[in-house]
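S.,

Sequence below, as promised.
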Amino acid sequence: MEPERTIWQISGGPASRAYADVFVRHGVGLIGPGDAGPWSLDRYAYDFSLQGFVGRFATEVHVGDIVLLRTGLSKVRAIGLVASEYMYLDQFDDVNGWDLQHARRVRWCELPADYEFGTPVFGANPTRFSRAAMPEVVDYARRFVASPPTYWQQVPLPGLPEEEPPVDCVPEAIRHVVAEAQDLHPLLWDRDRFGEHPAEDEMVAHFVIPLLRALGWPPERIAVKWRYIDVSLFAALPRTPQNCHLVIEAKRLGAGVEGALEQARGYVTALGVPRNVMVTDGIRYRLYSAAQDFAPVAYANLVRLKQSSINLFNRIKRP
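The prediction came back faster than expected:
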């Protein structure tokens, strides 16, 4: 008789910095923090409790187990079957700012809409990965996997993205900004040594404006809080909507820059002219194209500079 499959839940990230779509698109389940390197018994027995979620994810999961892709405390985005042993995939070192290199391949069946249990069935403060124990969750998972259609359980796994190499040489103009970001970033995240994370205005002052100045923008072409926009760049003076070149919306460190897009689009609508948008927390920068219905077109993380980041710097430097 086939052994009963264990049922697990894995987080798709907080609403402000979600990454569930990455799981489904690439056929993976990912957890972090992963910067410490691949899980190993000797190393992680010291660095992390063997009963912690990293060790559990690496050692207790079996191919064929059921995984629920959780969003929040009571919703499920997709149901999957584990399709590989533990892997360490460095191409997932920056997923919306998260280091999620601990991986398993998963065949996902994405639901047409999130399934809502109605109560916090995953607990008031669930870990990123754990066994699913609530009877209604276990029953739902087993019935779903046993019910047709079941073709998704045998489909080929999607390809994995290639690992992007780090930037060969940081552009000289921005080296001092990048160096300062890399020096300060660990401190800014350390609540014991630093205190609360810095607010968005502080990140704008210490990182965003210096980066823009380094990319050739003079102070008279950089507006702060113009028409309520955090930062605006102007191709020419005077500062009018027609001369606005780029709208920048800032968030505090860790708040999730991707969640700022809709607010920034509202500012563009109020201007009455189509303009590109960039969202940032001072460390991460994502650029959206107005001409492509605000699709993301460039990205840079100052503490994890990849080759593609040069595209963003080239796009936002002063013409």
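The chain has a mean pLDDT of 93.

Coffee later?
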